[in-house]
Amino acid sequence: MGTAAPMVPGIILIIVGAVFTFALRAESSWLDVRVLGLILMLGGAAFIARSRVKRRDRQEAPLRDSRTEHLPS
Asked: Taking the domains of the chain in order of start, what are their residue ranges?
């Protein structure tokens, strides 16, 4: 799995949210399309931030050597 793969859903959410916010000119009595777009963009940004934190934590975690764990000290 590539390094950018966990961030792809967040990028897609940001793109779809931007379309709803800036490009779509639809009106509805029960749905504000601009607010929906902003919510999608914020969700995408949060998804990207979470995936970056998880990736950093995974890189900083010490590797365990399973061959030496079972040896008596």
From this structure: 27-58
